Amino acid sequence: MTQEVPSPEAPAAPPAPALSPFAAVAGTFTRPGVTFEALVRRPTWWLPFGLAIVVVAASIWIATPKIDTERSIREMFERRAARTGQSLSDQQIREIAARSDRGPGRATAIGAPTAGVILLLVALVLWGGVRAFGAEARFSQVLSIWTHANLVNIAGGILSLPVVASLEDASETQFGIQRVFKSNVGAFLPEDVPAFLGSLASSIDVFSLATLALLVVGLRRLPGISKGSAAAVPIVLWALYVLAKGGLAAVFLG
User: Fold this and answer.
1) How far is CA 177 from each of CA 27, 101, 221, rounded to the nearest angstrom?
2) How far is residue 226 from each of residues 54, 129, 174, 212, measured CA to CA in Å?
3) Tens digit of pLDDT for each residue in 125-147?
4) pLDDT at 9 over 90
5) N-to-C CA span, the chain
6) Handedness of CA 246, 251, 253, 254 (dihedral sign)
7) What is the DSSP string of 67-101?
8) What is the model's pTM?
9) C-alpha span between 79 and 195 (Å, rounded)
10) Domain boundaries in the chain?
């Protein structure tokens, strides 16, 4: 009686090579699906995180001299006075402006680290959201997806730099300078639009919406979460943020 010889098992497929940080940045724009799959396998986030800090720092450094602090504060209190009937004297406004005025160096030293903290907090909230819907995800994976999706916002920030740099010093208010780069609906509305509506319109931004779309693409690559939940988590969180921002604008600006 002959005995059958078992056939040898097929060798396991070699693991897909990890993307370099620079390839991941480029791939986010050219092959987002493939790139996010690779980032889920082997997360990397330091390069887009660092780029975000650098662009925020450059934006603050360039924009700060273009803002007239006293006029910004006067505009804010005038809008509030129109709603509440309570106003401040010129002397009070000048005193508030003197306390609030910061040079580019100080503003950048505060704003750049704050941007880094916000990036981490957003990743933390997203991580909690996808975990609640069953995703088997580590924080580093979600942070990697978020920081790479945010590259679109970084691109928008870079494109806005020469536009803001072309302005005269102290020629804009804190609110007016946000309308200079015409990437959102709010930039095309009249200046006297209600603050809540203006805030909502400013959130309908080409770069923000593209970032949101990339975020959905990335979160769908996480194991254990449905495609619907992976889309719902960032969209709902973004909508809540937009409404909260609009509510604060309505309270403080009227």
Assistant:
1) 32, 16, 38
2) 35, 13, 42, 17
3) 999 999 999 999 999 999 999 99
4) no
5) 94
6) positive
7) B-HHHHHHHHHHHHHHHHS----HHHHHHHHHHH-
8) 0.89
9) 9
10) 22-253
